[in-house]
Specification:
Layout: H1 13-28, H2 37-66, E1 70-74, H3 84-91, H4 94-104, H5 108-111, H6 124-138, E2 143-148, E3 156-160, E4 163-167, E5 180-181, E6 187-191, E7 194-199, E8 205-210, E9 213-225, E10 232-242, H7 244-252, H8 256-268, H9 284-308, H10 315-318, E11 319-324, H11 331-342, H12 347-357, E12 358-361, E13 372-374, H13 375-381, H14 383-403, H15 408-414, E14 417-418, E15 421-423, H16 424-430, E16 434-437, H17 440-450, H18 452-457, E17 462-464, H19 471-477, H20 480-490, H21 493-496, H22 511-536, E18 545-550, H23 559-575, E19 584-589, H24 597-614, H25 617-620, E20 623-628, H26 633-639, E21 645-648, H27 660-666, E22 670-673, H28 679-686, E23 692-693, H29 698-706, H30 712-718, H31 720-726, H32 736-742, H33 751-770, H34 772-786, H35 791-803
Parallel strand pairs: 1-2, 1-11, 2-10, 11-12, 12-16, 16-17, 18-19, 18-21, 19-20, 21-22, 22-23
Antiparallel strand pairs: 3-4, 5-9, 6-9, 7-8, 9-10, 13-15, 14-15
The structure holds ligand 26Y.
Protein name: Alpha-1,4 glucan phosphorylase
Enzyme class: transferase
Function: Phosphorylase is an important allosteric enzyme in carbohydrate metabolism. Enzymes from different sources differ in their regulatory mechanisms and in their natural substrates. However, all known phosphorylases share catalytic and structural properties.
Length: about 800
């Protein structure tokens, strides 16, 4: 097998430098002195890809040779973030690279920002997928990602006059050095046409699908490196292209216009990522995207499986298919189609294999995010898939009717086809063997509310897998200063076994350790302040409390509650200029879906309050509000390490899990949160003493909903602080819409209801911050207990309980 000990390393700085010089010549025909920073980035990325090529091939060979069981993680989003630093860390080559570049007169830290941030995702769901493939490789599990190679990622956010403006994100402009195009592995995906059943041999029925259009799916593979091991898994991203045959076919019928239209439509499929997080977008192109990558991915898996593993009858023994929310749920009818139409299996065999292979993760209980497609559109676009879904639905409802004869309402609750719509969550539940939520509370709510009728049918399918984040990116890579302190204190074992961070807990009582921790935090705050000053022309006080809320803009996440409290503080301050408060910097960041009016106005409101305070000398020394443009993974990596306070203030029951909360925790921030999503488990880990919890509980919120809500006017009328806070909305008629949502539309997200309790919690934060010893003791306890929220823990649970996967040494 060769000497793999040395494969993923440049043997010496000398070797690195020689290769570097050669690459500069080959790629750019330049000497080292002439290279731009961007070119240096491209050279190193290419060198790393060369470096891992052999291991990539070797990993694949060993999987095939041993016929190991593998998982494919289907997700319509992978929010990767930059890869250079991650890959250097995974190869353990960061120091060598830094020092070699220094000899050439370059600073590695100045090279990192040259990499465009691949934003192939909206938020939590897409970033989770990226953390999960990182952990699979780190744990040496045979697992791969499957998604779309969007030409444009999530839009670039600009703030102009306080308002969000969206610009296209042409992240591929200068190419993507981590990918390899695999033209010979392209597959064809069919859309449209007519499908019907006709009698085949021996009384069977066979399907005829004709007059369809073919779109070519071309895979681009990105290597996923394990952490300092030799595993290299694959993230396969599909690009849509037209096929000449299909276009010529249209021309043969004499329709030039149709031929061009076809070409355009085919290429359109992988053009844009849908920038809508949590609201269902009923668009035809979106459905095409979903079928496109599912069909392409599954066809290529099946082809590979048959070549190396054998009979399709044993597919489920070797292959696990995971769907990240319902967006890839068409994998269920697509696998049925392949097994029956292409492999000749019976319905019964195909169904058993399909349900044994597929597992589904739900990420939301918001009804507006549950996918439903209009049947006429679905049928026109995917006629063969529709026939299969129709039959799945027919057999399923037959079973329901047998158990509950004559009870129409039972069928309505669980039908896949209902009201002229395809219900994707119902399809996903009926067609998989495992259904999980993403935090304990969320998984419970699925059972008792959202998916209750299904839970009574299949209790054994339901389980919880609390989310996690990769501590390699979110601690080791983002916060080297804290990493060094932890290693100095408890050694390095925690890097491979993050739960061992617990060994840090006793050091919370060690004054010398706390002092060093305080120094690290101070350093990270200064780094952030300097960056904001240099790159964004924003001045913040590094000796103030950094209080940060960074996530998508959404009413249920309640950025509105946060800014109303800031305004409340401001008004207190100007009415009482001598008020003794610890200076605070409130930092916000997040994108609003372009069509989400209220979320966009909230951005405007935050910027209005920011300006108000900046222009008022009575407040500006104590308070500062910053809305950071274009929050993305890279900016996150600068913010989490600098945070004192982690704002996790969603309306209880609404945030399925949250993952930012975990990134803050790894970096020693204190959670200020509601009992929602994974906050509940963070609180369970660190207790009341080391987190600050406020607001209605999930069951109380649900109770109010059942009663038709609460009266926000009552609170308004009885609470002078609330009335005064809402005066901020008189600044601009634009804010009328928000005011209406809070008062006339009865405050769906309990902002006013939780206001008092939030203000008290903020006071508690300040009280605790004044006691530096207590604060850094809490900070230590949070870091110590963060190990539980590593995605390594989550992925181990998925591997054990859902995928039945074992690690493979490479
Ligand atoms: C249907 C379509 C428009 C759609 C697109 C994206 C629907 C939902 C989404 C994204 C959802 C999402 O990001 N959900 C988040 O998933 C995280 C990972 O599990 C959770 O931590 C977070 O609470 C949840 O909001």
């Amino acid at each position: 097998c060769g000497n793999y000990q040395t494969m993923r390393t440049w043997k010496s700085k000398k070797e690195f430098k020689e290769l570097f010089v050669k690459k500069a010549e080959v790629l750019f025909e330049k000497s080292v002195k002439e290279l731009s920073h961007k070119e240096v980035y491209q050279i190193i990325a290419t060198m790393i890809k060369d470096l891992v090529t052999d291991e990539w091939i070797q990993t694949e060979k060993i999987y095939n040779h041993k016929r190991v069981r593998q998982v494919y993680y289907f997700s319509i989003e992978f929010l990767l973030g930059r890869l250079l630093n991650t890959n250097l860390l995974n190869c353990d080559m960061e120091n060598l690279c830094r020092s070699a570049l220094q000899d050439f007169g370059f600073d590695l830290e100045e090279i990192f920002p040259e990499e465009p941030d691949p934003g192939l995702g909206n938020g939590g769901l897409g970033r989770l997928a990226a953390c999960y493939i990182d952990s699979m490789a780190a744990l040496q599990l045979p697992g791969h990602g499957c998604s779309i190679r969007y030409q444009y990622g999530l839009f670039d956010q600009r703030i102009i006059d306080g308002q969000q403006v969206e610009l296209p994100d042409a992240w591929l402009r200068n190419g993507f050095p981590w990918e390899t195009k695999k033209s010979d592995k392209a597959v064809d995906v069919r859309f449209g046409g007519h499908a019907y059943m006709r009698p085949g041999k021996g009384g069977t029925l066979v399907c005829v699908h004709e007059h369809y259009n073919t779109v070519r799916a071309v895979p681009y593979d990105v290597p996923v490196l394990g952490y300092q091991n030799h595993t290299v898994n694959t993230l396969r991203l599909w690009k849509a292209e037209y096929t000449r045959e299909n276009m010529y076919g249209q021309l043969r019928y004499g329709d030039y216009r149709k031929a061009l239209q076809y070409k355009d439509q085919a290429q359109q499929i992988s053009r844009f990522l849908y920038p809508n997080d949590s609201t269902y977008e009923g668009r035809k192109l979106r459905l095409m995207q979903e079928y496109f990558f599912v069909s392409a991915g599954l066809q290529s898996i099946m082809r590979h499986y048959k070549k190396h593993y054998g009979s399709p009858k044993l597919f489920d023994r070797y292959i696990a298919l995971h769907i990240n929310d319902t967006h890839p749920a068409l994998i269920i009818p697509e696998l049925m189609r392949i097994l029956m139409d292409e492999e000749g299996l019976s319905w019964e065999d195909a169904w058993r294999i399909t349900t044994n292979s597929v597992a589904y993760t739900n990420h939301t209980i918001l009804p507006e995010a549950l996918e439903r497609w209009s049947i006429p559109m679905f049928q026109e676009l995917l006629p063969r898939i529709f026939l299969i879904v129709d039959e799945i639905n027919r057999r399923w409802l037959e079973a329901v009717q047998q158990r509950f004869p004559g009870q129409e309402d039972k069928a309505r609750e669980v039908a896949i086809l209902w009201n002229n719509q395809v219900h994707m969550a119902s399809l996903a539940v009926v067609g998989s063997h495992s259904i999980n939520g993403v935090a304990k509370l969320h998984s419970e709510i699925l059972k008792i509310n959202t998916l209750k009728p299904f839970y009574t049918w299949f209790p054994e399918r339901f389980n919880n897998k609390t989310n996690g984040v990769t501590h390699r990116r979110w601690l080791i890579e983002s916060n080297p200063q804290l990493t060094e302190l932890i290693c100095d204190t408890i050694g390095k074992d925690w890097i491979h076994a993050p739960e061992k961070l617990l060994a840090l807990e006793p050091f919370g009582n060690d004054a010398a350790f706390r002092e060093r921790l305080a120094e690290v935090k101070q350093k990270r705050k200064e780094i952030l302040a300097e960056y904001l000053h240099k790159e964004r022309n924003i001045t913040i006080n590094p000796h103030s409390i950094f209080d940060i809320q960074i996530k998508r803009m959404h009413m249920y996440k309640r950025q509105l509650l946060n800014i109303l409290h800031v305004y409340h503080l401001y008004r207190q301050l100007i009415e009482n200029p001598g008020m003794d408060i610890v200076p605070r910097t409130f930092i916000f960041g997040g994108k609003a879906a372009a069509s989400y009016g209220e979320a966009k106005i909230t951005i405007q409101l935050i910027n209005t309050v920011a300006r108000l305070i900046d222009q008022d000398y009575r407040a500006a020394r104590k308070l500062k509000v910053v809305f950071l443009e274009n929050y993305n993974v890279s900016l996150g990596q600068k913010l989490f390490p600098a945070a004192d306070v982690s704002e996790q203030i969603s309306t209880a029951s609404k945030e399925a899990s949250g993952t930012g909360n975990m990134k803050f925790m790894f970096n020693g921030a204190i959670t200020l949160g509601t009992m929602d999503g994974a906050n509940v488990e963070i609180h369970q880990e660190v207790g009341d003493e080391h987190s600050v919890i406020f607001g209605l509980r999930a069951d109380e919120v649900q109770q109010y909903y059942q009663q038709g809500g609460y009266s926000s006017w009552d609170i308004y009328n009885s609470d002078a602080d609330v009335r005064r806070a809402l005066e901020v909305m008189e600044e601009n008629p634009m804010f009328g819409q928000l005011r209406e949502a809070l008062l006339d539309r009865n405050d769906e997200f309990f902002v006013l209801k939780d206001f008092k309790s939030y203000c008290a919690a903020q006071q508690e934060i300040e009280r605790r911050y004044r006691d530096a010893d207590g604060w850094f003791r809490s900070s230590t306890v949070n870091i110590a207990h963060a190990g539980h929220f590593s995605s390594d823990r989550s992925i181990q649970e998925y591997a054990d309980d859902i995928w039945y996967l074992s690690p493979v040494k490479i």
